[in-house]
Amino acid sequence: MLEYKAARYGRAFARVDRFFPSTRMCSDCGRINDKMALNLRSWTCPCGSAHDRDVNAAINVLAAGRAESLNDRGAQVRPPAMVAPRGEAVIHPDAACPTRSVEGISVL
């Protein structure tokens, strides 16, 4: 249902794996902690950042969704341009200076 609604309103839709450890992963340093009980609503990472379980999961799911769709957001998809081999890059001397006229007006 979300996928067709996103398409209807021109939004991007990204699917995150069901078993993605969004609640256990620190959104600041990326460390994945051990399993937590469901009644544990806030926790502190060894890096020092304190997290609300739901807010931290939302930040991680958003980051995972954006990571899946980086190509349509401007990331480089094609390899950079390369210089053609010398025998392949041929420029004719007449190519840079056209001698045709448009409606009787000479270009030269």
List the helices and strands and how they pair.
Layout: H1 2-8, E1 42-44, E2 50-52, H2 53-68
Antiparallel strand pairs: 1-2
How would you characterize the overall build of this protein?
This protein is mostly helical and 108 residues long. The chain has helices spanning 2-8, 53-68; strands at residues 42-44, 50-52. The chain has 2 helices and 2 strands. It has a two-stranded antiparallel sheet with strand order 1-2. The longest helix is centred in the middle third of the chain and has 16 residues, at 53-68. It is flat.
Q: Low-confidence parts lasting 5 or more residues at pLDDT below 50?
A: none
Distance between the termini: 63 Å
Give the strand tally.
2
Q: Characterize the biggest β-sheet.
A: 2 strands, antiparallel
Strand-residue proportion: 5-15%
User: Can you count the helices?
Assistant: 2
Helix proportion: 10-25%
> Which word captures the global form?
flat
Order of helices and strands: HEEH
Query: Reading side by side through the largest sheet, how are the strands ordered?
Result: 1-2
Structural class: mainly alpha
Using only CA atoms, what is the Rg? 27 Å
**Quick check: average pLDDT?**
77
